[in-house]
TrEMBL record:
CDD domains: BY-kinase (cd05387). Its EC number is 2.7.10.2. This is non-specific protein-tyrosine kinase. NCBIfam families: eps_fam. The keyword Cell cycle does not apply. Residues 615-757 form the AAA domain. The keyword Cell inner membrane does not apply. Belongs to the CpsD/CapB family.
Length: 832
């Protein structure tokens, strides 16, 4: 970039567009850093692929699923009835298969699955371990079953390893550590603390022999079915009942067939296919048994209740018939003239409905009293009360299970303990649910009775005109009809109940039992897991590069530097690979030397009159180490070689450097002159370049700032203007001291050195603000130590644009692989 001469007015007009700040994220530089660090992505790709392979081979546990389909008959029993409560429809999102929905709830209920866990010992888990990977076993795959002593406290989640020793003997190996004093009681399903104990020693036991230790008591039973798999070890873990129930409920799903809603499809997921198959078949079989047994109990209780009520109603009916017959014979009222048969028929119909509702309320009272007395063995069917509600029945079943569990827990827990408070809370919730259901039916029945009474009031008004004797007869007749209607209603319900008892069978029919058909695992998604692992590993270097880019405050981009500062760029200096700083003298044909010549040519744009004698050029930077002295030495050298009388002044009095490269004695220098110790002639030194003189800094003075800003120093510079065409000042860094700002008032051009990947962005803020506030004039930037191998390709700085092989350092240059591939592709396309 060749800078243009910028006047004060132009700078002020453009000042509104100057931000002076750098972008937080440079996408172009970020992409280049990614390309530069490509090998890390290759390494991470290899590591990620290896990790994915090891995961899929040795650690991924396959998840299997098996299905069972069944149907429910329409004649649902009292224990699992259909229902019309809208809440369950809302919960399950279905209104056309209410019995199936209730059955779904039962299959997923805690009481049903807790029964299975206890009945089938599902809290005992079997597995085997290979060299790396563990494999879950079905109980039937194990040659022996572990049977615990439920009266003994057991440690759960504590792996028990069995090693076959032959002849029905197994060595029991327990973990080296992990013994617990908080053991589980399977009888009350709670934990109890015991005294501390030493680790039980490994022991060999035989089939049917009890193993005893403070934290375990069990024995091994022979599997009656010979196993096909030979196992080197069997690992058994005991879970609590609650853990096992939660695991079953979370891995069991129930759906309905889309075409036939009465068909249910039950799915069980697990790590072993045989275990899922066996569980489904056993779960449904136990549910069928339990449903049939509960149906028989409820129907039998209902039949007894209806018989007792029929007996009482029969007595009332006989008494009412006697009264009616007496009125007929004694009062001769059996043939009333002008009877309003229409009104009487309506009254008879309404009274029959009322009698039926009253009998239902009586049954409802019986159900309510049974619940309050907690005598669930005497529970009658809800059909006796004229309704069938699955939610209510489920709540009653839950209450029964909760009361039983509370009785067991009361033997070990205090009434005020947390477990007892929790189960009391669950009981209160279930009791409230059942009470709310009954209250709804009470309200419904009483509303119907009130409606009937209102209709009967209108019909009774038509009978007010009858004589007293006739009205007496009609009242007796109505009483008889009402009792007869109640009797017939109860008789019909008894007939239904007896029919159920006579033809009682489970209304759950298995269509397709669960089978092991070699189903493929449904999970995990190994392909997705591999992709995630490999992607994650590739993201690591990308993340580190991104974080490095966001938090990187170094200047790495020439384009961004110019955009943020709006300061002209005089040139770009490449990396100096030599220890000596006299590059222009010792490597005159190098690209770096050519870049300094370009800076020399571009400086004329900073100065008002380039032919004027005694031009003062001040060179500074933000901090030390940015190449300020290196730029000063070589710029002075390249100007001196152009037949211009030049002097280089080392005015960085705090850190003298120049004398070493020119092999000059620094005994006397500018600091000595400014203190009046020596004259100008004693500090000016000749160099190999005839037109270049050097005045070194001299010994470090105690007051460098005062010396540089003194009138003697200003007079010193003015005297040198008379003798030299150019005066190059190597000044202190402006980011550390303010000396250079004072010297800039007496300079004709100012060069600010920015070092690639070294200068901090925030350090440029001060010089940028001063430049755009017209506190500094004739300022230009030099970008130092730029590495051409990074391939930014901006073209800044003379010496880079002439083609490879033009400079001395290009002799051994080898193009990057990507460039060579690009060139070959271009050649192929050009041929076409």
């Amino acid at each position: 970039m060749i800078p243009e001469r910028v006047n004060t007015a132009e700078k002020k007009n453009s000042q509104k567009d100057i931000s002076g700040t750098f972008a937080l994220f440079d996408l172009e530089h970020f992409l280049r850093r990614i390309l530069k660090n490509w090998y890390w992505f290759v390494v991470m790709l290899v590591i990620g692929y290896a990790m994915a392979w090891v995961y899929s081979k040795y650690y991924a546990q396959n998840i299997y699923a098996s299905d069972l389909s069944l149907s429910t008959s329409s004649n649902a029993s009292e224990f699992l009835p259909t229902q019309s409560n809208q809440s369950i429809n809302f919960i399950w999102g279905d209104t056309g298969n209410q019995d199936g929905l209730y059955l779904k709830k039962m299959l997923l209920s805690r009481s049903h699955n807790e029964f299975l866990v206890k009945e089938l010992d599902l809290f005992v888990n079997y597995s085997t371990k290979g060299l790396i990977k563990s494999t879950y076993l079905d109980k039937d795959d194990s040659p022996v079953f572990l049977q615990i002593d439920k009266k003994h406290l057991q440690q759960i989640n504590y792996p028990i390893t069995l090693i076959p020793k032959g002849n029905g003997a197994y060595e029991v190996i327990l973990p080296e550590e992990g013994e617990s004093t908080n053991l589980y009681n399977y009888e009350v399903e709670g934990f109890q603390d015991i005294n501390s104990y030493s680790r039980p020693a490994d022991k060999t036991i035989k089939i049917n022999e009890w193993y005893n230790s403070p934290n375990l008591r069990f024995r091994l039973l022979q599997n009656p079915v010979p196993t096909k798999i030979k196992l080197d070890n069997i690992i058994i873990n005991l879970n609590s009942v609650n853990q096992s129930v939660d695991e079953i409920v979370s891995t069991t799903g129930v759906d309905f067939d889309k075409e036939i809603r009465s068909i249910m499809i039950i799915t069980k997921k697990g790590y072993n296919l045989n275990s899922t198959v066996n569980f489904l078949n056993k779960s449904v079989a136990e549910l069928q048994k339990k449903r049939l047994a509960d149906k028989n109990i409820v129907n039998k209780n209902t039949d007894i209740f209806l018989k007792d009520n029929l007996g009482n109603i029969r007595k009332k009916l006989d008494s009412s018939a006697n009264v009616l017959n007496y009125l007929k014979t004694s009062e001769k009222l059996y043939n009333i003239k002008d009877r309003d048969e229409k009104s009487l028929e309506k009254i008879k119909e309404l009274e029959a409905k009322k009698a039926d509702i009253i009998s239902k309320i009586s049954s409802l009272n019986n159900i309510k009293n049974t619940l309050q007395s907690q005598n669930f063995d005497k529970m009658i069917g809800t059909n006796a009360a004229g309704f069938e509600d699955g939610i209510f029945t489920a709540t009653v079943s839950e209450l029964k299970a909760l009361y039983t569990k509370r009785s067991e827990m009361a033997t070990i827990y205090k009434p005020s303990s947390e477990p007892m408070r929790e189960i009391n809370r669950l009981i209160d919730e279930a009791r409230m649910g059942s009470s709310n259901s009954l209250r709804n039916y009470y309200n419904r029945y009483y509303e119907e009775i009130n409606k009937i009474d209102r209709e009967m009031a209108g019909a009774n008004s038509d009978l007010a005109t009858y004589p007293e004797k006739e009205r007496k007869y009609l009242d007796a007749e109505r009483g008889y009809n009402m009792i007869e209607a109640t009797y017939n209603s109860l008789l019909g319900r008894q007939s239904d109940t007896q029919m159920r008892m006579a033809t009682n069978q489970s209304d759950i029919t298995v269509i397709d039992p669960a089978k092991n058909l070699g189903q493929r695992p449904i999970g995990p998604n190994v392909k997705l897991a591999k992709t995630a692992i490999i992607s994650g590993m590739l993201l690591l270097p990308l993340l580190f590069i991104f974080i490095g880019e966001v938090f990187d405050s170094k200047i790495r981009n020439i384009k961004e530097l110019l955009s943020a500062t709006k300061i002209p760029l005089l040139g770009v200096i490449g990396n100096n690979s030599n220890e000596n700083m006299l590059t222009v003298l010792e490597q005159p044909k190098s690209s770096v030397s050519e870049a300094f010549r370009g800076i020399r040519a571009n400086m004329r744009f900073l100065m008002d009159n380039e032919d004027q004698k005694g031009k003062v050029i001040l060179i500074t930077s933000s901090i030390g180490g940015e190449g300020k002295t290196y730029i000063s030495i070589n710029l002075a050298s390249v100007i001196g070689l152009s037949d211009k009388k030049t002097i280089l002044l080392g005015m960085d009095l705090r850190k003298p450097k120049i004398f070493g490269d020119f092999k000059i004695d620094n005994k006397y220098g500018i600091s000595n002159y400014l203190t009046g110790e020596v004259g100008i002639d004693q500090i000016v030194n000749k160099t190999k370049i005839p037109n270049l003189d050097v005045a070194t800094s001299g010994p470090i003075p105690p007051n460098p700032s005062e010396l540089l800003m003194s009138q003697r120093n200003i007079k010193f510079i003015e005297e040198l203007k008379e003798k030299y065409d150019f005066i190059i000042i190597d000044s202190p860094p402006v980011g550390l001291v303010a000396d250079s700002y004072e010297l800039m008032k007496h300079s004709d051009a100012n060069i600010y050195v920015v070092r690639h990947e070294y200068t901090e962005k925030y350090m440029l803020k001060m010089i940028t603000e001063k430049y755009h506030n017209d506190e500094i004039d004739n300022l230009g930037l030099v970008y130092n130590d730029y590495n051409t191998k990074q391939g930014y390709g901006y073209g800044y700085g003379y010496g880079y644009g002439y083609g490879y092989g033009y400079f001395d350092e290009d002799k051994n240059y080898k193009e990057p692989l990507l460039i060579r591939i690009r060139n070959k592709v271009q050649v192929l396309f050009n041929k076409k």
